[in-house]
Design a protein that fits this description.
The structure holds two protein chains of two kinds.
Chain A lengths: L1 H31 L8 H29 L8 H24 L11 H5 L8 H20 L8 H25 L6 H36 L27
Helix pairs in contact in A: 2-3, 2-6, 2-7, 3-5, 5-6
Chain B lengths: L5 H25 L26 H18 L7 H4 L6 H5 L30
The chains are: A mainly alpha, B mainly alpha.
């Protein structure tokens, strides 16, 4: 009952944040409304969708770190965090494919489908585009693993999801070196803030795991006589394992 | 996919679509290369105009001064002081111009009449 009330409260906050975002976006439309008949339309759409994909990848990584480190436990319900983490992992895949395919009709870049899908075969900045292709395929594997969790053991699941950090870095490298906006200040702010966010949550995750391990060790140690022993620590779950996907 | 927390998921879908449109507009405003400073289309070609030659007025002025000096030297009036006629700053043109003759020294004043040691004798006998 309490969890339901919390979920409703979170949803209301989400709706409020959406309304605020829509107001901000709507206020910028009169000056920045995209021109649909521009000759560079596909290129602009590809760049914009690249930033959206990068933001969704960031959200997915942060939500995954929040599950394992329990950083949002006081703010968000865990089923919601896990469900949104899984949803973002699939949604980013859709946007990534859109980002790659929308470049094809551009009359200036003249990409070919096989060159985009095969890593490092693109005539335009092959290393950076290849990094993006690897990030795409890695995200496909990690996203599919949500539906194969019953066939993967816990250790394999963790190792597979640790590769998400590498995929995030590859996505950032792809954005910085393949994107033509990288010189703009707003793009640099986006990349820098995204990198710092992931770094912060990763450090939090490492420190939380260490703290849990220390408590486990303290609990496993032989107890001294009551007169000399310190008060026992508060009982906490011993592991930081991710919950089973609620499907 | 949309069975649980449907409102949150639909909200994130719509929010990302709006953000996509906003980013599209911002990137288009920034231009093809990504920086607003560089215009997407080349600047219109303009032909440079030939510079119009202008007469150096100082030359005329300096010659006038020289003529005036020569003219003044030829007059009987005492020449004006050199500082009044000379320009404030020397120029290259001035260096090429014929050097004006040095101002003539001011005429020596007449030697003072020596006092007569002897008073003029009066013809009238006292």
């Amino acid at each position: 009952m309490e969890a339901t009330a919390k979920a409703v409260r979170i949803t209301l906050w989400f709706v409020l944040a959406f309304i605020a975002g829509a107001v901000v976006a709507g206020s910028s439309f009169p000056t920045h409304w995209p021109e649909l008949n521009s000759i560079h339309m596909y290129w602009y759409m590809g760049r914009a969708s690249g930033f959206i994909a990068f933001g969704l990848l960031l959200a997915s990584v942060v939500l995954g770190l929040a599950i394992s480190s329990r950083v949002f436990d006081g703010l968000l319900v865990r089923p919601w965090v896990f469900e949104m983490h899984q949803f973002m992992s699939l949604y980013v895949l859709f946007i990534m494919f859109f980002h790659a395919l929308i470049m094809l009709p551009d009359p200036y870049a003249k990409f070919e489908l096989w060159r985009l899908l095969v890593g490092f075969a693109s005539p335009y900045r092959p290393l950076a585009v290849g990094a993006g292709a690897i990030a795409l395929y890695g995200t496909v594997i990690v996203s599919l693993s949500f539906y194969m969790k019953g066939r993967i053991d816990q250790r394999g699941w963790r190792m597979l999801h640790y590769t998400t950090f590498g995929l995030f870095v590859l996505g950032m490298v792809h954005g910085i070196y393949a994107g033509t906006d990288s010189g703009a200040q707003w793009a640099q702010i986006i990349y820098l803030s995204a990198g710092l966010t992931v770094l912060f949550f990763t450090l939090f995750r490492i420190l939380a795991a260490r703290s849990v391990a220390r408590r486990e060790k303290a609990q496993a140690a032989p107890r001294k006589p009551i007169a000399e022993a310190a008060p026992p620590p508060a009982a906490e779950p011993a592991t930081v394992a991710e919950p089973a996907p609620a499907q | 996919m949309l069975t649980k927390f449907r409102l949150s998921k639909i909200t994130s879908l719509v929010a990302s679509a709006l953000l996509f449109l906003t980013l599209w507009g911002v990137i288009e405003a920034a231009g093809w290369s990504g920086s607003a400073a560089a215009p997407p289309s080349p600047a219109p070609v303009s032909f440079a105009q030939e510079p119009v030659p202008t007469e150096p007025p100082p030359v005329v002025v300096q010659r006038t001064i020289v003529v005036r000096r020569i003219h003044q030297l030829g007059e009987t009036e005492p020449p004006a002081p050199a500082a009044a006629l000379a320009p404030s700053a020397p120029s290259s043109v001035q260096a090429q111009a014929p050097a004006a003759p040095p101002p003539q020294a001011a005429p020596q004043p007449a030697p003072p009449s020596q006092p007569n040691p002897k008073p003029v004798a009066s013809t009238r006998a006292s």
